[in-house]
Amino acid sequence: MKVMHPIKFISCLLFVATTFVHCTKRQCVNNTVLTPYEVTSKGAWCWFADPRAIHHQSVDGSINKSYIGYIDVHGNIKAMQHDFVTGESNEVLVRSYFQPDDHDNPTFLILPDDRVMIFYSRHTDEPCFYYRISTKPGDVSSLGKEHKIATKNNTTYPSPFILSDDPKHFYICWRGISWHPTMAKFTIPTSDDKTECVWGPFQMVQSTASRPYAKYASNGKDKIVMAYTTGHPDPTMPNYLYYNYVDINTLELKDVRGRVLSKLGEDLYHVAATAAYQESFSDAVVDASSLRNWLWQVTLDKDEKPLIAMVTINENKSSHDYYYARWNGEAWQKSFLANGGGHFHQSPNIEKCYSGGMAIDDQNTNEVYCSVPVDGKFGRVYEIIKYVLDVDGQICSSDTLTKNSEFNNIRPYVIAQRGDSPLKLTWMYGDYYDWIVSAKRPKGFCTGIRADYNVKRKLNISEGDDVLHYEDAQDKQVKRVFSLDPVDNFTVQLEASLDTANYWGDLITTECFSYGIDQHTLKAYVRVKDQAVYLSTNTFGNSDIWKYKPRATNGVWWNVSPYSSVSLTVSYSNKELITYINGAIDR
Predict the structure, then answer these.
(1) Which of 197, 311, 573, 582 is most deeply buried (CB count within 10 A of its CB)?
(2) Residue 483 clears pLDDT 50, i.e. is over it
């Protein structure tokens, strides 16, 4: 093997191959300290596209994995996959060179044949969704090609569902037509990843405000439930909170008692933050606060009664109160949990309605996790506090899970469909300046992702692998040349500095394969014996150029930023060649 241009330098690398708390006293304070584990040092999400993380266990038990999705400040959409059968974790590069905006985090859907489907879209400024599907059941390290679902309208926050009453289709809810909640139905993807829209998209409601914010969930059978606001809380006061659901067998929108409000695609249901509306549709109004409501989650309890994590923000946006809202069978009931301070981030003049965040445990729906400012060793920092509620919806215990943190712990999320998995809670950790990277605030969302379980990843290097060792490849010969013999496993790892003015050509060559950058597409390739060429889905570069561009969601794809340096790994094991870029599997 030899290294060709545009490598300038290669350094030497050598390596060998409890879920419910019973309280006897109200307001008891527990002293549990959660051990936080790093999922990734660079990653973030918004809270309106879900499930941003999900667990899946196949019927036969051969698949038992959790998947956590996020986007980083370089515009890389990624997924962390942890396998509880083997103990292995892998980070997967779902899409490089994307709009560096935390609204673009991926969401997951488990298909009936155990394949994993991943959705993502730009923030407001491109009329399409993207998706990729694993070629192997339950394994996102085997993602197929990227596909696109074109729409005529805005696409943000894809939330997908499959329901047992309609197993041949999946549904997506998103912010779409007229910036309002939108829904469509699609065929289950074929073996070659093709799907077709067979119903919709249709706008679900019409508000008097310009931009309602919605969260969705389902009962897994025949209902998709939706909680939503009149509009964005920044300009909207009063900002009511509403609840409806869609019966997928009739495609009717209904209130919590089952009263039909509209037929989707035929009638458009109108909502308003007025006393007259509340009088006419009292069961549809969760909260008619005169202030600024926003929401973090909607879910269902074991009796399919809805529960909502919501926040009420005062007039000047300096005080955010967390509430747990529930339907008790007769009326909506609110329980105060805590004051969440003001906006959590480091930028004083934007997004003053950005609370630290909330999450309900959908398996133990009397447990709520909140990000609350707490005085500690490093001053006033947002910590994760767990609240347990009694049957009347009142707090019976609280437990500060993270303590004396140096940076904020924000936007908690309980892994969807986790079953008995020990990986339960994830959240963002670190400083945060803006939801998008731009010249205005180039640091953007420079957080990482943490969890309550160790999913520390390692490269897929099997014991006994041969490893290629390098010193300075400009001056030294490679110590050993390997052939792609089916019985041989090997791994090549290098740290490379690249000539960005000549950003193409072979980076690694052997007598059996070469790895490099395609001159026309700027995507990585593997060429086997000068015949078959396998091209990556991802561009070999990132979106760092956004740091020098205006703060905008304008649909522009700025030029790709080449890597000036990069960590590359090529691993061959069990007749499969896997490539990694900066530690993430690239396909």
Answers:
(1) 311
(2) no
**Cα separation of 165 and 327, whole Å?**
25
What proportion of the chain, given as a percentage, has pLDDT over 90?
Answer: 84
**Which residue's structure tokens are 């990653």?**
43
d(CA 59, CA 197): 29
Residue 204, helix vs strand vs coil: coil
**Cα angle: 118, vertex 121, 126; to 5 degrees:** 150
Strand ranges (DSSP E) for 100-210?
A: 107-110, 116-120, 128-136, 139-143, 147-150, 156-161, 169-175, 181-187, 197-203, 205-207
CB-based burial of residue 100 (10 Å sphere; 0-12 exposed, 13-18 middle, 19+ buried)? buried
The answer to whether 496 and 474 have CB atoms below 8 angstroms apart is: no
The answer to whether 200 and 190 have CB atoms below 8 angstroms apart is: no
CB of 119 closer than 8 Å to CB of 130: yes
Half-sphere exposure of 254 (CA within 13 A, CB side): 17
Is residue 162 a contact partner of residue 173, using CB atoms and an 8 Å limit? Answer: no
Reduced 3-state DSSP string for 427-445: EEEECCCCCECCCCCCCCC
Provide mean pLDDT across the span 425-441: 99
Q: Which residues contact 374 (CB under 8 A, 6 or more apart)?
A: 380, 381, 382, 383, 385, 400, 403
Q: Answer whether 104's CB lies under 8 Å from 71's CB.
A: yes
**pLDDT tens readout for residues 95-116:** 999 999 999 999 999 999 999 9
pLDDT above 80: residue 25: no
230 closest CA partner among 181, 268, 298: 181
Neighbours of 471 (CB within 10 A): 14
In the chain, domain spans = 7-15+461-586, 29-451
Contact 557, 446 (CB under 8 A): no
For residue 443, what are its two tokens?
A: 């640091």
Strands 205-207 and 197-203: unpaired
Buried b (16+ CB within 10 A) or exposed e, 60-74: eeebbbbbbbbbbbb
Q: Which run of H or E residues covers position 276?
A: helix 275-280
pLDDT, tens digit, for every residue of 68-87? 999 999 999 999 999 999 99
Element (H, E) at 279: helix 275-280
Per CATH, the number for 29-451 is 2.130.10.10
Contact 396, 366 (CB under 8 A): no
Structure-token pair, residue 346: 């480091």
**In this predicted model, what pLDDT tens digit does every residue of 543-586 receive, in sequence order?**
999 999 999 999 999 999 999 999 999 998 888 899 999 999 99
How many C-beta atoms surround the C-beta of residue 379 within 10 A?
9
Which residues partner with 322 through β-bridges? 311, 338
Token pair listed for 249: 């067998």
Specify the pLDDT at position 477.
Answer: 32
- Residue 330 near residue 245, CB atoms below 8 Å: no
Report the alpha-carbon distance of residue 333 to residue 324 in Å, rounded.
8
Distance (Å, whole) CA 427 – CA 412: 4
Digit-coded pLDDT (tens) for 133-151: 999 999 999 999 999 999 9
